[in-house]
Amino acid sequence: MNTKRETLVILDAAAIGRALTRIAHEIAERNEQSSEVALAGIPAGGDLLAERLGKILSEIWKHPVPVGSLDVSMHRDDLDRRAAPQIHPTVMPFDVNGKTVVIVDDVLFSGRTTRAAMDALNDFGRPKKIQLAVLVDRGHRELPIKADFVGKNVPTASDEKIHVHLGEKDEVVLERK
Amino acid sequence: MTWNKKHLLDIESLTADEILTVLDTARAFKAVGERAIKKVPALRGKTVVNLFVEPSTRTRISFELAEQRLSADIINFSAEASSFKKGETLKDTALNLQALNADFIVIRHSASGAPHFLARVVGAKVINAGDGAHEHPTQALLDAFTIRERKGKIAGLNVTILGDILYSRVARSNIWALMKLGATVTLCGPSTLVPETFEQMGCRVTYDVDEALRDADIIHLLRIQHERQRKTMFPGIGEYTQLFGLNKARLAKTKPDALVMHPGPINRGVEIDSEIADCERSLILEQVTNGLAVRMAVLFLLNGGKGPQEVA
After folding, report:
1. What distance in Å separates residue B93's CA from the closest CA in chain A?
2. In what order do the strands lie in the sheet with A6-11?
3. Concatenated DSSP letters for A40-102?
4. If pLDDT is split at 50, 70 and 90, which confidence band does A84 have?
5. Which of A152, B46, B53, B226 is the least buried, fewest Cβ under 10 Å from its Cβ?
6. A74 vs B40: CB contact, 8 Å cut-off?
7. How far is CA A81 from the centre of its chain?
């Protein structure tokens, strides 16, 4: 069988930068109490995006915005269905109680990671509100979850893959069969 | 990192990469133990049987707490209170546990190879919590974790294991783990308890305690296992303490940053001076804390299935 896969760049570095700036402004617009907002990125990927969003937001608000990193692997519902996931450190350098915590992830797909993230967050306290920001929403939800802030909506087939590269060269690539 | 093992039966059959996977995973679980809410739902709905045919306190409570922190359901089985007293074989006990749909069996047994036997007859995942004088894999993993955390590495370190090596499963598992991770291992103790055949495992054997300790980065003490000795292997406890016990004078001749470990239970005044056990160079209580994180990591990794590791 020919399994040649076609790849397509759907966001380049400049587009990722613009998407993050727009998401940051939307977060600022939605949350008037800027001192209550904190970001929690899901590694690997979401934590880097959360740091960048935090930097933009602190320039908008003129005060530092706390940014944490929230590993969700121990809260996943598919732990016995695949090899144990690599666990990343969870660092929550702020008290989540009473905060509006914006969960940041790179790709929103089934919604199961987001559900796990909300459970993981509850281990640290009771946030006042939880919001969700994602760079790419690719559809195919399996749970009643919707993002508050979306960088780009990308219609996909379920066997396609989305790769988010952040670092030396920022880009989001769609890989299709 | 990769982990495809169904059971944790020994260190001998693990690769260095697999050992490091456990240590990396344990680091995350140690952080969980420092949170306000120390429980995660990773093993929710799973049943773990702690089958301790040989008595144990610290290993058993460490496993039990690890299982509770992962939200598993737990059944405790001890030799005194079970049907072993009534003559049931290990196989029949295991099949009964299988009939209850146990997902994990943690076994401590006085017979070497009992966990391997169990893994062949039951469908559950088996964890060796110490089998005879053979292996005690989670102890070696927690020792390696403790060394790596304090020294930043294991490769290139000199580790001296001092005491009753012959009857020690802790020694065997530690030798395997440390050698695989690139440490240099020296064994020392009374010649009756440290046979030269251990050199076949790749370590060095010496009977000169000062020489064994001089270049050590880690001094790993082992308890004299009275219960496993069929005959007297040395004249007396007093003589052992004099010749091999770790006291201030001996510690003073070691590297200033050499650290002292002991799997417990310690016999104060026998293999270790009371003062040394409590000094800042002693890692004995850190080993206990780390044991919990390492056992959580082992349960978490074994709970994984066969599919791809990446998650969407």
Report:
1. 26
2. A6-11, A171-176, A161-165
3. EEPTTTHHHHHHHHHHHHHHHHTS---EEE---GGG-S-TTTBSPPPPPPPB--S--TT-EEE
4. confident
5. B226
6. yes
7. 23
Question: What is the pLDDT at residue B36?
Answer: 81
Which tokens belong to A68? 């944490």
CA–CA dist B283, B175 (Å, integer): 19
Nearest to B311 among A85, A119, A124 (CB): A85
Q: Which residues of A touch B (CB under 8 A)?
A: 71, 73-76, 78-90, 107, 109-110, 113, 119, 123-125
Would you say B285 and B58 are in contact if contact means Cβ atoms under 8 Å apart? no
3 state SS of B159: strand
Give the up-direction half-sphere exposure of residue A79: CA atoms within 13 A in the CB hemisphere: 22
ipTM greater than cut 0.90? no
Cβ of B311 and A113 within 8 Å? yes
Identify the helix (H) or strand (E) that includes residue B212: helix B209-214
Which residues on chain B are in Cβ contact (under 8 Å) with A76? 311
pTM of this structure: 0.90
Residue B41 in contact with partner chain A when CB distance is under 8 A:
yes
